[in-house]
Amino acid sequence: MPTKTYDQYCTIATALDLVGDRWTLLVLRELSMGDARFTDLKAGLPGVATNLLTERLRSLENAGLVEQHDLPAPAARTVYRLTRDGVRIRPVLRAIAQFGMPYLQAPVGAVRPRAAVFGGSAALFDPAGAVGADLRVRYLIDGEEHWIEVVDGRLRRADAGAEPDLTITGTAVGLFGLNRGARREDLVGQLQVDGSAAAWEIFCRCFPPSALTLENQLA
Question: Is the pTM of this model over 0.70?
Fold first, then answer.
């Protein structure tokens, strides 16, 4: 049970009792991308204190949303992962990311490629538009490689075991521009998309840019 509570008989208040503390949703964001070691989480959350991250993980474990798992040899390491209940946060995180997309300001400092892929493109995943779709996307963003995959309309993290249908190469800032509704031709020098027209059409159905951002641009 949470140590702090809004003490309201309300579903939103109850959810915030569990995940409303600072850094908690960002920890869940990192774990929504897959299993992670403590050091991975620390690296993915610049600015979080080690003791605070430990406290947030312990709280999420006590709530039954996160668990520790020991990988077999030769990895032989402990990772954190979402439980079956914890996985239910993924659509919530996507909704929050979509809500926040139009409010992104010009970046100050470096933009993490991982955030552009998983907190940008993947956050825009539209299950309705993706019905029946199959697509493998390879991202080469600022020198980092990431993969996502849609299999029969379901989004999952992919590995590099097969050829991609699309390869998106460029900068994290350029990818966020695409996520926010910029046209490919306006991102020359920042982003390049290689693949068939059919694959690009599927991508646009599965990962449409923020509708609110587009409305703002057209207003």
Answer: yes
